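User: Can you model how magnesium ion sits in this protein?
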Amino acid sequence: MRIGYGEDLHALVKGRPLRIGGVVVPADEGEQAHSDGDVLIHAIADALYGAIGSRDIGYHFPDNDPGCLNLKGEVIAHHAVGLVRKAGYEIGNLDCTVFLQQPKLSRLIPQIRSSLASILELNVKRISVKAKTNEGFDAVGEGKAIRAVAVVLLEKENEK
Ligand code: MG
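Assistant: Here's the modeled complex, given as structure tokens:
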């Protein structure tokens, strides 16, 4: 078995879509980023890379590379899952938390889980997405940023 942890944070700015786990969430502001800024997918990808000791997103997709401009979260996720499977592992389960002051994400959680299930080609029962505010503290609490953390467990076929 392997365990991986990832986290990401993006500033929120007007004129950008708010992408969370492949879902565009109705909001006044979205993630500022060189890529599409999907904070949850970035945290999950770093957890996957970390679990197999394969560096991080910035190593695989440098943010000063013009080829990575507006890079879709799905492309990053597929790359990370591809490396995981190449290393002989499958995702056992994935647990994530998104920190966002507003809007409240609670009613969108089923949609975000099912989007991640499709992107990661994983049964939705193995995916947990939680949402929290930051209780008004720090940049996230002041509505200036969004943060996500993810923990993933990988299993080899013969360990299941
Ligand atoms: Mg990011």
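A couple of observations from the model: The first strand starts at residue 2 and ends at 14. Residues 8, 10, 33, 39, 42 surround magnesium ion (CB under 6 Å).
User: Helpful, thanks.
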